[in-house]
Amino acid sequence: MNIPNLLTILRVLLIPVFIGLFYLPFDWRYWAASGVFALASATDWLDGYLARRLGQSTPFGAFLDPVADKLIVAVALVLLVEEHGNLWLTLPAMIIIGREIVVSALREWMAELGARAHVAVSNLGKWKTTAQMVALVILLGNPPRMDFWVGLGYGLLIVAAGLTLWSMVQYLRAAWPHLSTGANGK
Predict the structure, then answer these.
(1) Beta-carbon neighbour count of residue 33 at 10 Å?
(2) How far is CA 167 from CA 68, 127, 144, in A?
(3) What does the pLDDT look like over 55-105, one tens digit per residue?
(4) pLDDT tens across 21-61, in order?
């Protein structure tokens, strides 16, 4: 167990705290939930940085890090869809969660073929993640009424959904030669 792995575990443990704060009957719950989500997002960057910088990448960390990321983002999106209850948030949330399922399944299948490197993470994914995390911090920190901040959050989430679709198309194009061959390799 090393510091990057402990930070990843912390991110998973923050999920129930984040949910609990979100449902408190106080106005400050938005800022509190957003703060915990922002902290979790920062640990995502920090654990990756430390793992590379300190040479502490492990198979456990490589497995748990993307799982922790997907869990906290999916939880945040589901909470926000419930809270806001509109198409501006629901549609991007469906796209983001659906893409994560498709790409995760694709990566797993490509790994079974020994071709996992064909669907590696790209810089586009980093832009998508940044737009998504900033949008979620903004939306979690504000009540569901249309104002500048909520509009900005919606806009960034729509940008993130667009980048999400674009990156999924790139993954599928990279995997297409493997997807389009038959069982006998033809």
Answers:
(1) 23
(2) 20, 10, 29
(3) 999 999 988 998 999 999 999 999 999 999 999 999 999 999 999 999 888
(4) 999 999 999 999 999 999 999 998 899 899 999 999 999 99
**Is residue 130 within 8 Å of residue 156, measured between CB atoms?**
no
Q: d(Cα 28, Cα 131) in Å, to the nearest integer?
A: 24
Asked if residues 93 and 77 have their Cβ atoms less than 8 Å apart, the reply is yes
Q: What is the amino acid identity at position 47?
A: D
CA–CA separation, 37 vs 107, rounded Å?
26
How far apart are alpha carbons 134 and 174 in whole angstroms? 28
Whether pTM exceeds 0.85: yes
Contact 11, 45 (CB under 8 A): no
Reduce the secondary structure of 134-153 to three states and give it as a string: HHHHHHHCCCCCCCHHHHHH
User: Which DSSP symbol is given to 183?
Assistant: T
Q: Which of 8, 123, 28 is nearest to 72 (CA)?
A: 8
C-alpha 24/C-alpha 35 separation (Å) is 14
Phi, then psi, of 82 in degrees rounded to 5: -65, -45
Please give the structure tokens belonging to residue 16: 């129930």
E strand or H helix that includes residue 168: helix 148-179
